[in-house]
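Supplementary Methods S3. Complex input for the NAP-bound model.
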Amino acid sequence: MWEEFDVTTLPYYDPELDNKVALVTGGNSGIGYYTVLHLYLHGFKVYLGGRNSSRVNHAIKDIKKEAKARLRKDIEDKHSNSLITRKTGKLEYLHIDLTDLSSVEKAATKFLAQEDHLDVLINNAGVMAIPYELTKDNFEIQMQTNYISHFLLTMRVLPLVKVSKGRVITVSSVGHHLILVNCKPGSQFNYWPSMFFMWCRYALAKTASIQFTKMLAIKNPDILCMSLHPGLVMNTNLFSYCTRLPFVGMFFWILFQFVGYLFGVSNEQGAISTLKCALSSELSPEYDNGAYFTTGGYPSKPSHVANSLDNAASTWIWTVHELRDRGHEV
Ligand SMILES: NC(=O)c1ccc[n+]([C@@H]2O[C@H](COP(=O)([O-])OP(=O)(O)OC[C@H]3O[C@@H](n4cnc5c(N)ncnc54)[C@H](OP(=O)(O)O)[C@@H]3O)[C@@H](O)[C@H]2O)c1
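Predicted complex, serialized as structure tokens:
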């Protein structure tokens, strides 16, 4: 078992003086929810990128309430008023639907109009093991949601990340190891039985996310780009499709609970890896650019397919061409 990292050792900022800004996709549930909560507690103005206004606004309300309760408890526990000066940041909803490239463009344009810098971009949103489907941009849905739309979003807001010499964190998954040989993100395993290959399509997208991070780091040595596996967090909505299937859903539910019992971490512990990458002053572009981390924020090594620079370069080129073909020059 890993030793839990204490997020209160990460730096706290004054929202007015330091003006730290973060953008987190999928911040309304699961791991993203706790990522936002802690960034907010650390004084960040956080944009929650999400597709459903009522879900995101509901999460914003809950996070504010939770943050207030935690600050009060900290003050009581420590019998000190030193925490009274600790200020929470701000929370804003940014509409973005990752299955739609035009929505990504709109979100980026809105963000660029509102902010002049971005300290931390967290590409967190994702879907896992859902049936084969094409988006209106004609990409396989897991590939676009998990990878391609985050690629486009990152490229659009990158100038603001460079202004603050900030960080780009991309949430991948240990599941990327399912891809054993390099295959183009365009391979959609179209005609193969869905139940197994829906996991492979997820793995393919998460492999591409790691490759993207490696290339981004090489191309931008002045900022810090990292990817990570958050841990096995079995109580998020990520598993909903499988557990709601008729008949086999119960089998999946039992399997996930069992795996979670043996190897799982809580939703909040799942955010630790992201938070460490986003805030730790021990990480620097010089030594950590392109690195991959695992549960609890420990450095790790991705699969040989994800780690290969040749594969990363060809995935990058493929993505740029696919986006260009759809009218999105990057
Ligand atoms: N849980 C794990 O064990 C685990 C393990 C490895 C990696 N991960 C990765 O961790 C990240 C967070 O997952 P989670 O476990 O916290 O799952 P989750 O609770 O399902 O959160 C996923 C988030 O992504 C958002 N999202 C999905 N599709 C979207 C779209 N088209 N446009 C905008 N937002 C969209 C969801 O929004 P809605 O609420 O609107 O659906 C939700 O906020 C994912 O990238 C996942 O692959 C998780």
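The chain has a mean pLDDT of 94. Residues 53-78 form the longest helix (26 residues).
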